[in-house]
Structure formats: C-alpha cells, structure tokens
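Tokens for Coenzyme F420:L-glutamate ligase-like domain-containing protein. Go.
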Amino acid sequence: MLQFIPVKTRPLLPPKDDIYPVLDKYLPPLKEGDVIMVTSKILGIHQGRCVKIEKDTREEKDALIMREADYYIPRAQVPHEYSLTIKDNTLVASAGIDKSNGNGYYVFWPTQTNKLLREVCVYLKKKYRLQKLAVIAIDSHSLPLRHGTTGVAMGFYGLKPVKDYRGRPDIFGRKLKVTRANVVDSLASFCNLLMGESNETTPLLIVRDALFIDFTNRQTYHQLFMPITQDIFYPLLKKFHALQKKKFAIQHDRRHHH
C-alpha cells in the first residue's frame, strides 16, 4: 500500500549547514523502492546559498532576483509584490529566493541540483544497501488562475520523471497519441501539502511502495522538459523569451563597446 511518511528534523540554519548528519539522525531505515522528497531550502542552506538581509528592501531583493533568474519579467510590469521568473525550467516567483524561516538571510535554490541529488542518492543507497532509490527536490510555486501554492519538482535523480501512455489503448481501444503523466511534479504537489509551509520543520518525506515509479541510475532530468518555444503555453511565456533575448543583446552590446 502506498505510504507517505513525513520526517521532522531540527531546523537547518543559514548561512550554511550540513544535510548529511540530518539525514543520518532523522531518516528511519530506508527500504527498496523508496523515494525521498527534500525541500529546496535545506539543499540551498547545505550549499551555503544564503545572503544576509541588509536593508530588506525591494531594490535589494530585485538585484538578487535579476542575478539568479534565467528569465524574468521586471516587477514594474507585474501587478503584484513578487517578480515573475523562470528558474531551472520552472515558473516561480522571485527565482525561488525566500526569506521565510531564513533567520535573517535570503535563501536561494541550490546550484547543480541534480548533481547534488545524485550524491545524496548514492550516499543513501550505500548506507542502506539499496538498488532502487530516488530523490526529488521540491519547492512551492503558484499556478495561473489559482489561489494558493502547490509543490513542484525542481530537481530529481534515480527515477524516470514521465510515465508514457502513448501507443496504449484508451477504454475504447483507440491508441493514445500524446498522453504522458508527469510523475515527479504530481508527487511534489501532494508531498508539499504534507510537509507544510510554515513551522512544521518537516523538510523530508518518504514515499514508500509507489509501484508506478520506474527507477533508473541514469540522469533523466532532460526527459521532463521541452524548449520554451515548443511549449503549449508559449503564447503566454514568449514575453519571458523576448525580454531575455533583449537582456542578452544588451549584455553583448556592452561587451562589444568595452
């Protein structure tokens, strides 16, 4: 039977803290086929991806957002207090930069997230002598036309992120042509709800007996994403694309003139 096992830990403290003693102390014995959900925040703190809040102004945070975001729409063009950005193939506010539970620091998303998750996965596999294990990093983000946040996978290792139904028959025997299920974001959404958003101190969760998971030792991150120009939502996302091309053109022009 499918199980979701939240794991409470001590708070990981900015500007830098080590995740491995926390895994050793708080994770129960893992089993074959477990999936470990881990919040992006503790991964960022583990890497020291924290900046002390000096003035706590919009200008201070905006400068960090522009540095961290892969694509961004300036705050002046968004009717909200948050900047709209794309970071690591994910639509997220403020490039994922967060100061809640940061103890006076801005906490950034980790860098080379999938490499870090692979290291964590290999460590846990070795410790518990497992063949099949996966790790998914999650954060919360907002969905268009919806109140509230939901979880999103912003990195993963050890499993195939998409379940492909193409070529299979529907209930009337007609072959499916485009249907694929997003496994990692589906798990992230539900687990984010269980892990909480405030003072739960539950940055880890074990998904157990998920028979729909296809485990692998290969890097599968690329299987989840598509180029922005091929996305069904490109008519809405193209403003990011246009602004980013303009940004690169300005940078190129400055280098050329210098």
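Residues 248-258 have pLDDT under 50 and may be disordered.
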